[in-house]
Amino acid sequence: MKTISLLLILLAIFTLSVNAQNSDTEDWISLFNGVDLEGWTIKITDSELGVNLNETFIVEDSMLRIRYNKYKSFNNNFGHLYYHTPFSYYKLSFDYRFVGEQLTGGASWNVRNSGIMLHSQSAESNEFGQHFPVSIELQLLGGLDQGERSTANVCTPGTAVETNGMVNYDHCINSKSKTYNGDQWVHCEAIVMGGDYMTFIVEGDTVLHFKKPQIGGGFISNKEGAVDWNNYGVERDEELWMAKDGEILTEGYIALQAESHPIDFKNIKLLNLCGCKDPKAKNYKSYFITNDQSKCKY
After folding, report:
1. DSSP E strand boundaries for 164-225
2. Res 192: pLDDT
3. Tens digits of per-residue pLDDT, 124-141?
4. Both ends of the chain: CA-CA distance in Å?
């Protein structure tokens, strides 16, 4: 009898130990499977939803590549590739590199320029001719061998962020990253805390931090001198977005950007920080920031 009791005690201790280890193991999700575009939706300016105009987005050698080999000219065909699931609290990790030359017709400011849109509107909600989704852009810039050019900046199509305790309506805010010239791979991360704050990290260095991502800025503004919505292909939903001016963005979609310069992405992974926070559940994780009781498994 004592032997059985001892075994039960040891089993309980072992179970608690395993559960504790499991609670700390990070379950990263691979957003890109390295084989095809499963789970992603394409929206390119002046093209229907799901149309991969001129094979802009391709998968090759386990990389997600943005290419313009079948274009004659860019013609404002801004493209975005959306992951199908919206997220709120998470960590995003990826590698990118710029390659080759910019497509003819692209603007000078789009040389070695791309980005990842965070807290974005869905692919389906974009208008037919819309250039950019309402979102927070983690802007990616490559060096031009002409001095400093930071990457992991924040740009704000239809949005704004808070810096130094005030809403900052500058369209782009530079990070303090190094300059990365040539066709080298660069590792980048984003920590996204719902509507509280975002932090951008490049090669292990924290390069930018801002708070309260929100609707209202750029082409969503009632302020004098604001850019006309029609310049960005938005006609149908202008009043809808204007009514949301100042609304904090707490979640949204992730989208890769195509802006006329070839770029490669790989190792696109996400750690969801929203999940079951009940320690009694099998899928409890100690690192979850917000609770989603519907995800608990017992």
Report:
1. 166-168, 172-173, 186-193, 197-202, 205-215
2. 98
3. 999 999 999 999 999 999
4. 30
